[in-house]
């Protein structure tokens, strides 16, 4: 078989994979190639992700309308050569997208994204979640800025510009000249030590650290209608899975109270993560970033932060598998005694200087996602008709 994908440079990485920019030689365009680690658990994760993506794609075709989930173009198993361990990696080939929301927030120096963008992104994320939950019967379980990418008119050109900003001599031609040389059936070798200059994550960081006056490469696009794609179904679950709701999900800062306390979770867990994510887009800071102390754990601190903001611990949260480890019968935390109440609206207005009307509007919407009782948390569908979403900003 002829080799088809030629790796150019690293785009990003996650817990179980590395993602590379590659050229699809047969079609002549750039793609993103996600290469899973070779351990059996990661092979299984990749196979699960492929199945879920196929389901999403089938539903998307049936339904039509705008797509908010990333498109899977191809997948195969790749045997690395002996120099690179000789083991099998699952490879997923995706449409090439632009930067993640995390990169975007970095470019805004963590002062928050323009609220107009946040409003549009929120709308699209609710559409994406409604589609995922109701049409596909899938819970994402890992919504966070790294897993939401924006589409740009020409992502390869965007990447090239990032590289050029870093170093005028660095461009695609020498990117491919250092790209891997040894070939197997479908893919050039992927573990080659690439020049760090060609690692996009590093480039972004370097632009920020060394060229603070440099024009943000996304500046020209501010007027464009920002379009998002949700990626990474690597941890997603089907709602009809018999084991649903039991295992630990979500990245720490986006983790919902029911998951911490061992109450069975469902698709509403995604709405909690979304609330945390929107707050972060508005303010540039985490809503919850718990830390362990000498006498309490990260989970203790996390629950304390939630109570400070939301006050009431609903009854169902006292019946989780781990609730007794954290709370006494009076619903008080065992290990955190001093709580400082804060109101979301006031934090947005007083700390982050949002005009009163915006602070009211955002907090009224966010509090419907940040409902401690998952049975009372709003669905993506019902949030789509929240008046704040259609408010001209
Ligand atoms: P993991 O499951 O290991 O977390 P992801 O699918 O989240 O892997 O991808 C890791 C990173 O790779 C993303 O955060 C993003 O920076 C980059 N990436 C993934 N898919 C694409 C894509 N289609 N286009 C551009 N970059 C991508
Ligand atoms: Mg990821």
From TrEMBL:
Keyword Nucleotide-binding among record annotations: yes
Its BP terms in the Gene Ontology are: regulation of mRNA processing; spliceosomal complex assembly
Sequence ranges assigned to domain Protein kinase in this UniProt record: 5-389
PROSITE patterns assigned to the protein according to its UniProt record, in alphabetical order: PROTEIN_KINASE_ATP, PROTEIN_KINASE_DOM, PROTEIN_KINASE_ST
- UniProt-listed SUPFAM superfamilies: Protein kinase-like (PK-like)
Tell me which residues bind ATP: 34
Q: What is its EC number?
A: 2.7.11.1
Q: Which UniProt keywords apply?
A: ATP-binding, Kinase, Nucleotide-binding, Serine/threonine-protein kinase, Transferase
> Family assignment?
Belongs to the protein kinase superfamily.
Spell out the protein name for this chain. Answer: non-specific serine/threonine protein kinase
Source species, please? Answer: Hesseltinella vesiculosa
């Amino acid at each position: 078989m002829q080799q088809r994908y030629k790796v150019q440079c690293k785009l990003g990485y996650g817990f179980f994979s590395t993602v590379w920019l590659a050229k699809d030689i047969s079609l002549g365009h750039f793609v993103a190639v996600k290469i899973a680690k070779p351990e059996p658990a990661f092979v299984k994760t990749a196979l699960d992700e492929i199945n879920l993506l196929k389901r999403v794609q089938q539903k998307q075709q049936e339904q039509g309308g705008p797509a908010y989930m990333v498109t899977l173009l191809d997948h195969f198993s790749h045997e690395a050569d002996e120099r690179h361990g000789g083991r099998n990696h699952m490879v997923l080939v995706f449409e090439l997208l632009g930067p993640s929301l995390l990169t975007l927030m970095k470019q805004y120096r963590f002062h928050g994204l323009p609220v107009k963008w946040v409003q549009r992104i929120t709308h699209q994320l609710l559409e994406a979640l409604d589609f995922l939950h109701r049409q596909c019967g899938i819970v994402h379980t890992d919504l966070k800025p790294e897993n939401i990418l924006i589409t740009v008119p020409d992502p390869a050109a965007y990447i090239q510009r990032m590289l050029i900003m870093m170093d005028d001599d660095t461009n695609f031609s020498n990117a491919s000249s250092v790209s891997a040389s040894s070939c197997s059936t479908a893919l050039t070798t992927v573990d080659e030590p690439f020049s760090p200059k060609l690692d996009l994550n590093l480039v972004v960081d370097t632009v920020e650290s060394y060229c603070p006056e440099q024009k943000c490469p996304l500046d020209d696009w501010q007027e464009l209608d920002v379009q998002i794609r949700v990626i990474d179904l690597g941890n997603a679950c089907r709602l009809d899975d018999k084991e649903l709701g039991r295992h630990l999900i979500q990245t720490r800062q986006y983790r919902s109270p029911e998951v911490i306390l061992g109450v069975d979770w469902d698709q509403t867990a995604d709405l909690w993560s979304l609330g945390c994510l929107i707050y972060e887009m508005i303010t540039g800071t985490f809503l919850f970033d718990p830390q362990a102390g000498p006498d309490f754990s990260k989970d203790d601190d996390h629950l304390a932060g939630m109570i400070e903001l939301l006050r009431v611990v609903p009854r169902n949260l006292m019946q989780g598998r781990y609730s007794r480890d954290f709370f006494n019968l009076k619903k008080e935390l065992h290990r955190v005694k001093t709580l400082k109440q804060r109101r979301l609206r006031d934090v947005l207005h007083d700390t982050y200087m949002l005009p009163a009307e915006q602070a009211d509007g955002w907090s009224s919407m966010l509090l419907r996602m940040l409902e401690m009782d998952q049975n009372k948390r709003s669905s993506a569908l019902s949030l789509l008709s929240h008046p704040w979403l259609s408010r001209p900003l």
